[in-house]
Inverse folding.
């Protein structure tokens, strides 16, 4: 039975690594998959899903005005597709998530979304909020704070390491920009 999955965590938890491993498992068994990622996040290159540990795979991209139901349906028309994998799922819109839910329900294809749950201010991303509401299954990809507790929050820092508490919700970056923390240390760092 096809389901909509949301695998969520903070920065640097290994979400892309888990996605690439799961896709590899399908491919290794002779099944075809469809990989998607946000077009504007091109840290690894245009149309590429990559992990900090050095593995990566080419992917199709989505933009804010794309109809993801139509994209999945068009991919399926090209040949068998056992599963759809979406990286950077926090950048989906609520409408995108409804389109993906429709693809699961009507096309009977499993869709696995991987992304952040909250931003550096502790607020849900729109795509993550919709996935939390509509997903059939949710799984946390865990990472740890410097204190050893589970990290559930992330802080944004500037070039000198100072913690930022305002700014646009979306700023593409990696280890140089974001640090994952437990809630207590996030509160200490942000003054919340």
């Amino acid at each position: 039975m096809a389901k909509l999955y949301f695998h969520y965590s903070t920065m640097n938890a290994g979400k892309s690594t888990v996605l690439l491993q799961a896709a590899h498992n399908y491919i290794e068994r002779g099944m075809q998959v469809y990989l998607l990622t946000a077009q504007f996040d091109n840290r690894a290159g245009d149309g590429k899903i990559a992990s900090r540990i050095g593995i990566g795979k080419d992917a199709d991209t989505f933009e804010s005005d794309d109809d993801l139901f139509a994209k999945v349906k068009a991919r399926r028309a090209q040949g068998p597709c056992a599963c759809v994998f979406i990286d950077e799922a926090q950048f989906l819109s609520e409408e995108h998530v409804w389109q993906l839910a429709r693809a699961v329900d009507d096309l009977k294809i499993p869709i696995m979304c991987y992304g952040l749950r909250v931003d550096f201010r502790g607020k849900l991303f729109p795509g993550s909020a919709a996935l939390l509401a509509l997903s059939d299954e949710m799984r946390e990809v865990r990472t740890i704070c410097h204190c050893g507790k589970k990290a559930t929050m992330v802080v944004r820092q500037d070039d000198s390491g100072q913690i930022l508490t305002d700014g646009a919700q979306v700023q593409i970056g990696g280890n140089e920009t974001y640090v994952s923390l437990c809630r207590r240390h996030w509160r200490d760092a942000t003054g919340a």
Helices lie at 15-28, 68-77, 94-107, 126-134, 183-190. The chain is about 30% helix and 25% strand. The mean pLDDT is 89. Residues 7 and 121 are 20 Å apart (CA to CA).
